[in-house]
Amino acid sequence: MRFSAVAGRYARALLNVAIEKEKEEEYLRFLDLVCQIYESSRELFDNPILKPEKKISLIKEIMKSFGQEMDEFQERFLTLVFERKRQKLLRNIRDLFEYEKILSEQKVPANLSIAHSPEDEELSLLRKFVRKYALKDPVFDISIDESLIAGALVEFEGFRLDTTVQGRLKRIAREALKRGEMS
């Protein structure tokens, strides 16, 4: 996924407010909900005829129906986003907010692709591996990919650990091709 520098500025600014108010998780849930609302009615929220105030009012109403309230900083944040026509960056802002939040907690974001739902023991071993190299606790973004057959693929801070059967088969194929070229 490509991240926008503009989205990064919005994400960091909102995270700074969230940290100051000690509401990082609440603000992340707010961004999740706003993204869901926006993505479910993108045509409506991208309509240039509809004023930003009306768009925010609609979001507030929908949030209220989910039992959620918007504080003044969240409302000001959305006002900036919609007035500057940056609503298409909301998902990017949300993802960067989460990434920056992990970093602010002195943890390391790590992608974990695995062929099945990971067991606690597997996660523990993978955490130890990441901790050994990153010197920080990982926060895994787990994706299940049955094409890996078995094993896990962990990526963090430029490191890549591939213990998957699929990865091993690819290495064997590359080595066989190299040997074939050499003979």
User: What series of H and E elements makes up the topology?
Assistant: HHHHHHEHEEEH
Total DSSP E strands: 4
Order of strands side by side in the largest beta sheet? Answer: 2-1-3-4
Q: Structural class of the helix and strand makeup?
A: alpha+beta
Helix content: 55-70%
Contiguous helical run count: 8
CATH topology of the largest domain: Peroxidase, domain 1
How many domains, in number, for the residues? 2
| N/C terminus separation | 41 Å
Percent in strands: 5-15%
Question: Stretches where pLDDT falls below 50 for ≥5 residues?
Answer: none
Shape: elongated
What's the main sheet like?
4 strands, mixed
What's the pLDDT, averaged over the residues?
92
Instruction: Give the full name of the CATH homologous superfamily of the largest domain.
Output: N-terminal domain of the delta subunit of the F1F0-ATP synthase
CATH architecture of the largest domain: Orthogonal Bundle
CATH class of the largest domain, anyone?
Mainly Alpha
Radius of gyration: 21 Å
Protein name: ATP synthase subunit delta
Keywords: ATP synthesis, Cell inner membrane, Cell membrane, CF(1), Hydrogen ion transport, Ion transport, Membrane, Transport
Family: Belongs to the ATPase delta chain family.
GO molecular function, one term: proton-transporting ATP synthase activity, rotational mechanism
Descriptive notes:
By secondary structure, the chain is of the alpha+beta class. The chain folds into two domains: 5-102, Peroxidase, domain 1 (Orthogonal Bundle); 107-182, no CATH class. The chain contains eight helices and four strands. The protein has helices spanning 5-21, 24-40, 42-45, 52-65, 72-83, 90-104, 120-134, 165-182; strands spanning 107-114, 137-144, 152-156, 159-162. Strands 2-1-3-4 form a four-stranded mixed sheet, with helices on both faces. A hairpin with a 2-residue loop joins strand 3 (152-156) and strand 4. Helix 1 (5-21) packs across helix 6 and helix 4 (52-65) crosses helix 5. The radius of gyration is 21 Å and the shape is elongated. 22% of the residues are buried. The mean pLDDT is 92.
